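[Structure tokenization] protein backbone as discrete codes

[Encoding] learned vocabulary of local backbone shapes

[Begin record] amino acids and matching fold tokens:

___
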Amino acid sequence: MSEVNVLVNNVNELENQNNENNGNNTEERSEEYKKMAEKKFLGYNQTRWGFASTFTNGLSVLLQLQKLIQTNKAQDFDMRFISLMVLLNGWYFIVACLEANIGYALATLAFVIYNLIVIYIHYCGVGSKGAWFCLK
């Protein structure tokens, strides 16, 4: 029985050490995030770059979306690529939300919405065969 008690005590000590190390790592990571957010590149910090990317990505999406809606045709898009872009930008959106980077979250969300519209028009627009989710 004493061997079991020794093993249990050793496990408990290791768990306590692990919990202490995790607490220190969390504090170190939060300090690193703060330093990264305060760093500047070309005079812009992380938040300002996020909003700059929101503007440029949003403008790009609006121009592409305008043509897509005018023609109502997306047959020349590769749906494997567009689907991967939805997943990738969706993942970036989640990461940006977790990091509280609103500008970057909005920029990636714009591409997620755009790519979902491309998928819809590809399957439901002019020249398509229709799909179960088409609103016709």
Q: What stands out?
A: The chain has two domains: 1-38, 41-136. Residues 41-136 form a domain with the Monooxygenase fold (CATH 1.20.1280.290). The mean pLDDT is 75. DSSP finds four helices and no strands in the chain.
